[in-house]
Design goal:
By secondary structure, the protein is α+β, with helices and mostly antiparallel strands. The chain contains ten helices and nine strands. Strands 1, 2, 3, 4, 5, 6, 7, 8 and 9 form a nine-stranded antiparallel β-sheet that branches. The longest helix is centred in the N-terminal third of the chain and has 40 residues.
Amino acid sequence: MTILGIYINKNFLANFALVLFGFTSLVQLLDLLNNTEDILQNHSGTWSIFYYIILRLPEIMGSILSFSILIAALITLGKFVQHNEILALKAFGMSFYKFLLTLWPSIVFLGVFHFVLHNYIINNAIQARTQWDAESALNNPDQTKGTKDKNLWLHDENFLIRLEGVLDQGHTLVKPIISKRNNLGNIETLTLARSARWEEAYWVLEDVQEWTIDTTFNSHFKKIPRLIWHSNLSPQHFVDYTTPAESLSFSDLINFSFNSDIGNQHPYYYYRTSLYRRLFLPFVCLIMVVLAAPIAQRIQRHGGILTGLATGIGLGFTYFIIDGIFFTLGEVGALPALFAITLPLILYLILGISLLIRVEGW
C-alpha cells in the first residue's frame, strides 16, 4: 500500500471507530435506561448490569455497524473535499475513481469484521443472554416483571402451553403454564409449575399448582410436588421453537435452511433469508461507501458538510427501510430469499454508481 493509501485508510478507519464508539455508547445508554430496573429485579447484584452490557454490546454494534460506515465515509470524503485534497490529487493526475479504489483495504477489513461479528459473536451473545434470563426465571419464583414479552406459547392437541424459558437443550422448561381444554374448547385444568424436566418419554412437572374446573364451572385447587405430563412435544420441539435465526450459528443456519428433515418450527425460507443476509452483509460496506462518494463530492457546492451528512443519512435510511421490507418479504416466503436479499444491494449499488457518474463523469 502506498503512503497515500495508508493516509486515506487511516483517516477513514479512525472516523469509523469514533462514529461506531459514539453511536454504540449512546444506544447502550438508552438501552440501559430502559432495562436497568428489570435487570436489577430479575438478576441478583449490580454486577448483572455489567454482564448485561457485555451481552448486549455485540447486538448493538451489529445493528449500527453499516450506518457507522456510511457516516464515516461521508465525514472522511467530505473533509478531503473541503480541504481541497481531492482537487490537489486530481491536479496530479489521480481521478476520483482511483482515489476511491485506495479504500479497498478498509472495505475488505470492515466486510470481514461484519461477517465475523454476525456469524460468530452476535449469535453466541444472544444464546448466552437467553440462557441467563431463563436461569434467572427458574431460580426466582417471584420474577414476573419484565417477562411478559419473553413468554413462549405452544399448542399440542388439547393443551395450550406457555413458558418463560428453555434450558439444557430443551430438557428443562421454565415456569410452564399448561391449559387443558375439552372438546368444546373450555378449560378443564390449569396447571402451573416451577419447572418441567424431560424424562425419556414424558415430562415431570415440579412444584405444581393445579386448578380443575368441573361442568358447573366450579374450580378445585390442589398443590402437588411432582406431576407426570404426557405430551407429543419433545425437547427438540422447544429448542426449535425458541431459537430465532439470529441466535443460530452459521453452520446451524445452513442446516436449517437446506435440511427439511430437521423439523424446525419455521419454514426453510425463514432461515434461508437470514442465511443469505449474513452472507451478503459484507457487501453493505461497499454500498455505503459508494452512496457516500457522490454526496461528498457535492458538499462544497451545496451547503457544506452538514448538508452533505443530512443528505447521506437520508439516503442511507431509505436503503435500510427498503432492505428491511424485502427481508421481511423473504422471511414470510412472499419473495425468493436470494432475490429479497440481493435486490436492495443491486439497486442501491446502481444508484450510487449512477450518482457518481453524474457528478464525476466517465
